[in-house]
Structures are given as structure tokens and as C-alpha cells.
Design a protein that fits this description.
Layout: E1 2-7, H1 12-22, E2 27-30, E3 40-44, H2 48-53, E4 59-62, H3 68-71, E5 80-82, H4 89-105, H5 108-116, E6 133-136, H6 140-151, E7 156-160, E8 169-173, H7 178-184, E9 187-190, H8 204-207, E10 214-218, H9 227-235, E11 239-244, H10 257-260, E12 264-266, H11 276-291
Parallel strand pairs: 1-2, 1-3, 3-4, 4-5, 6-7, 6-9, 7-8, 9-10, 10-11, 11-12
Helix pairs in contact: 1-11, 4-6
The protein binds NADPH dihydro-nicotinamide-adenine-dinucleotide phosphate and oxalic acid.
Length: 306
């Protein structure tokens, strides 16, 4: 069995070592143009030339949960796209979102400013029932985040494509229930995949439907947000702030207004990192199952795009 590694932004050597240890029977190499046909590939944002040269791959294992970089490419119909299914990301995502939520709710940024000026001052406690948290995307990551937010006793709402029944979450589904979901939400968390349907979903019209003093946490993809719509809503006070981990252009360009806006907290696409050991274990187990003709989780539906 031949497996190619074709990942921009990843250092190949440690991945090759881990993959070879997990799949000792396989021949595992970094792909180079002109290489012979392979059976599987481990990829992150591969070039189209790789896919054009490798039309007989049985599956492409994406080194991330979001497959938007792959769905933009032309992939042979017989090749299945497989995304990472948690692999240690959901607990990181829960940490990130809970941190952003509590930092905002408890006004810790303002306390830090006071303390920096030597001020010992208190703010009035706020009520968590006034801060319902709405999670867009109730998949692997969204449901883990919902559990973490529930542990701090915030009201939790969710929105997904298909109807869901998640304990303790007021679930909404489909375009027809989006407005009700937004109108009840104060802290909006985006955990949607980036598809033709979800691109630009965080815009002037949708964000304006949040409860006054709304707060945005975008941890999905930069292209979910219409970036130029955010700042007017922050400046006119409808939104109290935003924590953004993802951007239309990454790295966020120097001079972009998000860097310096006082109500925006920026992180460099780090909310949930791909973990090597967990990812390799998951990919190796899935390849073994596929080789035995068994089903696996995390196969991307080409019609839905995620
Ligand atoms: P899943 O595929 O498990 O979940 C996606 C969820 O979004 C599902 O609940 C799905 O609904 C819902 N959804 C998709 N399309 C629509 C739509 N048009 N309308 C309403 N709901 C929709 O994905 P994950 O939870 O694993 O990951 C989510 C995203 O998080 C990734 O695609 C990636 O972009 C991002 N991510 C970001 C990271 C970071 O570090 N910032 C790290 C990892 C991931 P349904 O359940 O009905 O199918
Ligand atoms: C992912 C990511 O999709 O890192 O896994 O953003």
C-alpha cells in the first residue's frame, strides 16, 4: 500500500515517522510530481497538480476538520474525502470558546486595564441568563462547545442544517429558524463548515438580529464573516465586541483594522490545533478499516460540501 503526504504548512518528517510507525506495512512518502500512483494520501491544502496526477486514490485524509481548501479543488469522483473527526480538537475548541465567553462576560479585559493603572475597582455582576450563547453548527465541535458552556450555566441555543435534539440546548434548524435563533442569542459562536451556503453568513443583516450588546466569537473560517460589516456594528454599540480566530486573509495583513480595534480580540487561527499523535492514530485506524472493507466516520458528503 502506498500513501502520500502532501501538506502545505506541515513539517513532513515527524508526520512521516509517526505514520510509518502506525502503518508499518505501508510505503509512505512525501509526494513529488511524477510519483507513481498511490492508494491513500494525507493532505492539507494540496495543489491541484497532485490531484490531477493521482486520480486513483481511494481516500484523501485531510489534516483538519474543515475541508473547504479541498472542496475548491477538482477531486476524482472515486476518491473519498475524509476529515479529522475531533482527534483532540473538540476539547481545545471548548477551552477557547469558554475562555472568550468568560473573558467577555466577567469583563476581565476591563479589569486588566484598571489593574494596569493601579486601580482597585469593582464592576456590577452581570446575570448569565442575560447572555444566552448561540452556537452555529452543532457538529463534532459545536456539541462539545455546547457542553462546556452549559457547565458554566449559560443558556445555550444551537443552529444546524438538520433538526437536532441535544440535551440542554434549544435547537433550531434550517434557514427558516435562523432569525429566531439569532434574536434569542447574545453571544454568537460560529462553528459552521465553510460552504457555498455558509460563506458570508455573519453579516450586517444577521449580526444586527442579535440581542443588543451582542458578542461574536468566530472560530470557524474567516470567509463566514463579511469583515467590513463588523466594525460599524461595534462602533454603533449594537455589538459589544468580538473574538476572532480566523480571517479572510491569513496571516491577518499588517494594517488590517481588526488588529487595533479596541473591541476585537484577535488570535492566529489557533483555537483547535491539529495534534499529530491523535490524528495519525485516527487516520491509521481508518485506513485499516477501509482496507478491511469496513465503514468509517468523517467522510465528506460532496453534495453538502462538509
Ligand atoms: P461538523 O461537520 O461535525 O459539523 C458541522 C455543523 O454545521 C453541523 O451541525 C451541520 O449541520 C452544520 N451546518 C453545515 N451547513 C449548515 C447550514 N447551511 N446551515 C446550518 N447548519 C449547517 O464539523 P466540525 O464541528 O468538526 O467543525 C466545524 C468547523 O470548525 C470546521 O468546518 C472548520 O471550518 C472549523 N474549525 C476551526 C478550527 C480553528 O482552529 N479555528 C479548528 C477545527 C475546525 P448538520 O448537523 O445538520 O449536518
Ligand atoms: C481545521 C483547522 O479545520 O485547523 O482543522 O482550522
Amino acid at each position: 500500500m502506498k500513501i502520500y503526504f502532501c501538506c502545505t504548512d506541515f513539517k513532513a518528517e515527524p508526520w512521516l515517522t509517526a505514520l510509518r510507525t502506525a502503518l508499518p506495512q505501508a510505503e509512505i512518502e512525501v509526494w513529488a510530481p511524477g510519483a507513481p500512483p498511490g492508494d491513500y494520501a494525507v493532505v492539507w491544502a494540496p495543489p491541484q497538480a497532485f490531484l490531477d496526477e493521482q486520480p486513483r486514490l481511494k481516500a484523501l485524509f485531510n489534516l483538519g476538520a474543515g475541508v473547504d481548501a479541498l472542496t475548491q479543488l477538482k477531486v476524482a469522483p472515486a476518491t473519498q474525502l475524509v476529515r479529522l473527526d475531533d482527534a483532540g480538537m473538540s476539547v481545545q475548541m471548548a477551552e477557547y470558546v469558554v475562555h472568550a465567553l468568560i473573558r467577555h462576560f466577567r469583563e476581565f479585559a476591563l479589569y486588566e486595564q484598571d489593574v494596569a493603572q493601579g486601580k482597585w475597582s469593582f464592576r456590577r455582576p452581570r446575570l448569565r441568563q442575560d447572555f444566552p450563547v448561540g452556537i452555529m453548527g452543532l457538529g463534532v465541535l459545536g456539541q462539545r462547545v455546547a457542553r462546556a458552556v452549559q457547565a458554566f450555566e449559560f443558556p445555550v441555543l444551537g443552529w444546524s442544517r438538520s433538526a437536532k435534539d441535544v440535551p440542554g440546548v434549544r435547537c433550531h434548524a434550517g434557514a427558516e429558524q435562523l432569525s429566531d435563533f439569532l434574536a434569542e442569542t447574545r453571544v454568537l459562536v460560529c462553528l459552521l463548515p465553510l460552504t457555498a451556503e455558509t460563506e458570508g453568513i455573519l453579516n450586517r443583516q444577521t449580526l444586527a438580529q442579535l440581542r443588543p450588546g451582542g458578542y461574536l466569537i468566530n472560530v470557524a473560517r474567516g470567509a463566514h464573516l463579511v469583515e467590513e460589516d463588523l466594525i460599524p456594528l461595534l462602533d454603533n454599540g449594537h455589538l459589544a465586541g468580538a473574538t476572532l480566530d480566523v480571517f479572510r486573509q491569513e496571516p491577518l495583513p499588517a494594517g488590517h483594522p481588526f488588529w487595533r480595534h479596541p473591541k476585537i480580540a484577535v488570535t492566529p487561527h489557533t483555537a483547535a490545533r491539529t495534534l499529530r499523535d491523535e490524528s495519525v492514530a485516527q487516520i491509521a485506524a481508518k485506513i485499516t478499516r477501509l482496507e478491511h472493507g469496513e465503514s468509517i466516520a468523517g467522510i465528506v458528503d460532496p453534495m453538502k460540501g462538509y
